[in-house]
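User: Show me a protein chain along with its predicted structure.
Assistant: Here is one chain, sequence first, then structure tokens.
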Amino acid sequence: MSSEQQASQQATAEATEIRCQEKSKGGLCYEVILAEPAVNVTLPKLPPVPGKNVSAEEIEEKLKAAEERRLSLEAKKMADWSAKMAKIEEASRKKDELDKEFKTHAKEVLVTKMEQYEEKREQQLSEIKEKLKMHAADIEKTRQSLEQQKIEDLQKHLDEKLRNASTLRDDNIKKILGRLKEHNTDKLNEVRATVDQIEAQKCNEQTRIIENKLSTAEQNREKELQKKLDAIRKHERRAELVRQNKAALAQKSDVTASSG
């Protein structure tokens, strides 16, 4: 090989740069940078080497062989580069498929969990409503029982007072009659009428007091029932708000998953 050919190959080797870096785990990425052909490259002059004379045909054959080797090397490099690019494209395609499968699976799992949560939530709300109904029924039953007991107690108390008042009245009448035995009949009737009037006023007063107590008890009962009903309505409103929020959240999750 002549000195000029050696210098040309050395310049080509110096202009060709191969960079290697780790692209992903288990593989390497190569960057082959081919320099532009140098123009008007001044080759160093080497001292003449004594030897036999080389004919022009031999030089042409050697140049042709060198050109063929260079083309073969470039073709091999291009084939290697194409194979690496095909592997990269295959890996990217598999990665996209895995991402798509993961997103689909994640969406299905999310939808399943949301449905299960919604069913569980509805079941809990139904159980709470049923418990509230049973509690309200127990309260109403207890209220009626207490009211009935209170009325019976008041009635017994009133009867007892009336009996006591009647007994007291009779005793007073007997005492007065004993003291007024010497008085005439008109005076006795007048005193008896007075006593009856006093006793009637006392009975009326006792009746009025008992009626006021019954009215107050009824008003208090109505207030207590209203408080219970307000509490039940407030709880139902909260349950409805929770249901609406869950429906909005589920709808938002579906929209987000669809857009993703």
